[in-house]
Amino acid sequence: MRANQSHETIPPYPFGAYEDGINILMLGDVVGPSGVKAVESLLPTLRQAWHVDFVSANAENADGLGVTPDSARRLLAAGVDVLTGGNHTFRNHKYRDFLLKEHRALRPMNIAAPTAPGRGYGVYSTGKGKIGVINLSGKTFMDAFDNPFAAVELALADMGRSMPIVVDFHAEATGEKKALLYHLEGRVSLVVGTHTHVQTADETIVGQTGYISDLGMCGVQNSIIGMNPEPIVSHYRTGLPPAFIPARGKAAVQGVLARINPHTGACTGIKRINISEIQEATG
Ligand SMILES: [Fe+2]
Ligand SMILES: [Fe+2]
């Protein structure tokens, strides 16, 4: 079963003329089977057409609330270089083992549980040199996480300043996300938000650091943040616990494409990506 994705639906290269640099595609939370399929159908072509050197995707919702190793492997096989995580990452027990074995799978480094498996940052290779990726969670309206502002200092000290570094900040509050941008301004190449599943229109470059409050999601837009509306509406109407069932159908792929100077780590361009209406085939 394959999604009906044709090359005509891929927008032109967002930066216009190609200039040398590291092109990093960061994708928002991949939600459910339709989100996974949309990434699978689009990413191989997108990587080539847009000169993409490195891809991250937040995988915490690839199976709804949580992610299975199978879905994670599919995203990696589709061309994702590193999977980030969030507050739902530990819901699937099998993924805990996966985090121990797969260095391309991260989870927020500041999770409070001292015995949590996996790692929160890593160094990866691109065709244009190494890149560091840090995965953090916010504390505002988020349970179970330690101070991300303190945690990120440990990661930066460990990785040094010899490579571009990008941060997936999985957080609810835009104020907290913006605060991390100014905390890290000039010290990292990108700070991007995930978790809300709603793409913001505030992409910018502050100093030499690219930023967006939320990448959005790779999932069905006709939904409640990627989930079937009915059980959630019922939850709000009745007060009974909600059921979270990933919506199926046409899915969008959302995130940013950023251009990084490999020598200085400066972000020289950031473009919001929203490729919508990727039809999931039936049968
Ligand atoms: Fe999410
Ligand atoms: Fe989340």
Structure description:
The protein is globular, with a radius of gyration of 18 Å. With about 280 residues, it is α/β, with parallel strands linked by helices. It is built from six helices and 13 strands. Strand 9 (about 205) and strand 10 (about 210) form a beta hairpin. Helix 1 runs parallel beside helix 2 (about 70-80). The structure holds fe (ii) ion (2 copies). One fe (ii) ion binds next to loops.
Structure summary:
25% of the residues lie in helices and 27% in strands. It contains six helices and 13 strands.
Present the secondary structure layout:
Layout: E1 22-27, E2 29-30, H1 32-49, E3 54-58, H2 69-78, E4 82-84, H3 93-101, E5 121-126, E6 129-137, H4 148-159, E7 165-170, H5 174-184, E8 190-194, E9 204-206, E10 209-212, E11 217-220, H6 229-238, E12 251-260, E13 267-278
Parallel strand pairs: 1-3, 2-11, 3-4, 6-7, 7-8, 8-10
Antiparallel strand pairs: 1-12, 5-6, 9-10, 11-12, 12-13
The structure holds fe (ii) ion (2 copies).
CATH class: Alpha Beta
Q: And the CATH topology?
A: Purple Acid Phosphatase, chain A, domain 2
Estimate the strand proportion. 25-35%
Oligomeric form: single chain
Radius of gyration: 18 Å
What spatial form do the alpha-carbon principal axes imply?
A: globular
The strand count comes to 13
Structural domain count: 1
Alpha plus pi helix count = 6
Defining traits:
6 helices; Purple Acid Phosphatase, chain A, domain 2; binds fe (ii) ion; 283 residues; 6-stranded mixed β-sheet; single chain; disordered N terminus; alpha/beta
